[in-house]
Amino acid sequence: MPSLPQRKVGIVACSGEELPEGTVTRLAALKVLEELRPADTVTICLPLFLAGGEGDRAFAKFYPTIAVDGCDRRCAARATELYSNKPAASILLDDVLAEQGLPRPQGLRRLTPDSLPAVDALAAAIASQVDHLTSSHWSRTEGALLEAEPAASPAVSTASCACGSGIPVTNVDVDGQQVRLMALDAIFDLAYGQGLRANGQLPASLLETVRLYNPVPAGQEAAYARAVQLAWHAYCAGQEASHG
Amino acid sequence: MNIAIVPCSGIGKTYGSVTREAAYIVVEELRPGSTGIVSLSRLVLGEEEARSVVRAMPVITLDGCKLACASVNVQQAGGTVARDFTVLDCYRRHRACKPKGIAQLNEGGMALADALAREVSEAVDTLQRTPNLPDLNLDPATQEASEELAGVRQMGGLDHA
Known about the structure:
Low-confidence stretches of chain A: 1-6, 148-158
Mean pLDDT of chain A: 80
Radius of gyration of chain B: 15 Å
CATH class of the largest domain in chain A: Alpha Beta
Number of strands of chain B: 4
CATH architecture of the largest domain in chain A: 3-Layer(aba) Sandwich
Number of strands of chain A: 8
Strand content of chain B: 5-15%
Strand content of chain A: 5-15%
CATH architecture of chain B: 3-Layer(aba) Sandwich
Helix content of chain B: 40-55%
Strand order of the largest sheet of chain A: 2-1-3-4
Number of domains of chain A: 2
Order of helices and strands of chain B: EHEHHEHEHHH
Low-confidence stretches of chain B: 137-161
Distance between the termini of chain A: 15 Å
Oligomer: heterodimer
Radius of gyration of chain A: 20 Å
């Protein structure tokens, strides 16, 4: 049974173009993504929270995120919380500079050579948080970090959304058309864990949750409900078979 | 500054880097003084200062993909997108400039950013000829005055792409 990969951490950098600090956050995030922790991290695009990035919004609801901000406006942390979920960790460049005794960065388009240690220090701080989060237990139900304990072994995902968010998608048949639904198995995991079972009609709350992450075209609500119900029955049957 | 430039701010793909680089070329080299960058992150958060800037002056957006984050976010903030540019359209006009790289664009990416910046600069010049453009440096408008100015511009009919 596919489920959400458990060790991915999302990095949301403020990336503010008006300040050198924004450039530092962007370059530090990229350093973590490309060099330091490429297997454990994905980017979450801050502007997509408003521009229709269901995948990005859904990611932060299900996975731990690290907000990286260049100034005390904390656009990344506050916007992530506003549109998706509270970040598991929030890093402010000022704090890192103070801890390391580094000068304020200079340069917008191109950072000055003196500013590059700030990128390295911030990237190291992000990587450290990534390590902490990947070795801790993240509750997708609570959207919060639980006690520090070894995470479960990584699960296998059958497919990931093309948006690059890492959210698995499930193909279902809606009146003869193959439709990709995001995070369906993760939603079923949560529902099953909360005691819902496939005994009768599809629970309304389950369908509502599916619709949070998947647009349902007008007029096709009933067809989608049937498709989700079929998938839910199959999921529950699989769970019961695997648990005897 | 009387024209706001808003690049898409994407950090995970090459085209986002091209928009950012092009925006910097415009505000730092080609049209300094009359243009300035407004960070999309501030608009996403709904920060009032950033929202008032994009409401008070014409905005040129530079988008890296069809999701058009820059244009969408500016419009959601109540701003007027006077011209919107996309990297893909620009690339179709400059096929030799194939961009690669994210943190550091390759030569093709830099050339494409330069080409995009020149197109944006031409749009800036067109907008500069529009009467009643506010200048936030010379006359810091209050929110009320900014909305009045925005209304004047809309009645004047700016050049929409």
